[in-house]
Amino acid sequence: MATLMIVTCPLCATRYEASSDAFEPAGRKVRCTNCSHTWFQETEEAEQARLGLDSDAENDDLANQFDDEDGDDITDIESEAARLASASRRASAGYAENRTLRKQAVYGWLSLAACLTLFISGGYQFKIPIVEAFPAAARLYSELGIEVNTRGLAFHNLTYKQEFENGIPVMAIKGNIVNITEQPLVIPRVRFGLLDDAAQEIYHWNIKVTQKPLAPNETLQFSSRLASPPVAARNLQVRFARLRR
After folding, report:
1. Structure confidence by residue, pLDDT tens digits, 4-56
2. Secondary structure class of 68 (helix, strand, coil)
3. DSSP readout, 33-65?
4. Domain spans, the chain
5. What is the CATH code for 153-240?
6. Whether the Cβ atoms of residue 146 and residue 123 lie closer than 8 Å to each other
7. Which residues are CB-contacts of 148 (< 8 A; sequence separation ≥ 6)?
8. Which long-range CB contacts under 8 A does 139-148 form with residues at least 24 apart?
9. Peptide bond into 188 cis (omega under 30)
């Protein structure tokens, strides 16, 4: 792993700061930019090991030997340090830029998720006004598994069965109507439809339950009876009749 090391010119004692990997593995020849003296510079580890074995005279001989050689492949130590510093700055700038781009991407996805959440939440919270303004939206909500009650009235505990009176079959229907809003509501006519095996309506009738408005959260029981229902009837559909405009 590269570390910073202090390189000192043996002639004028000018000190330089450089990366240790510039001198690995076997050292290299450098030049002092202050006095132009050249010498062979090893890594700190190699230099410490050699100083423990070599005499000062041997070190001087080694320095003089490199002084006499030609100037090919001589490294300007200050230029090398500047190059390393420049490379370090470029690497830091690149890292900072990539980090900024990653943050922007994360914030962008979070913003998109927040917008979608608000859109979905608003679409669910205001589903009744949306369907009242755009009736076709009711089908979309239904396909999403969301039933939209625009009337504020709901059917509870619906039951129907076939009975006999004087040998005549009679369909008996009963259930409750609940006001699920916070305001009184007028109950429209209740519409009953009989469906065949293909879910096609083959017969229907309406009844008026009451003229009195239903108070908030109030429940009203209703019932209806149909004599001699169609033989092909297989199912019953109960809903509120459409209001006449």
Report:
1. 778 888 888 888 887 777 777 778 888 888 888 898 888 777 777 766 655 45
2. helix
3. TTT--EEEE--HHHHHHHHTTS-HHHHHHHHHH
4. 4-81, 153-240
5. 2.60.40.10
6. no
7. 127, 128, 131, 137, 138, 141, 142
8. none
9. no
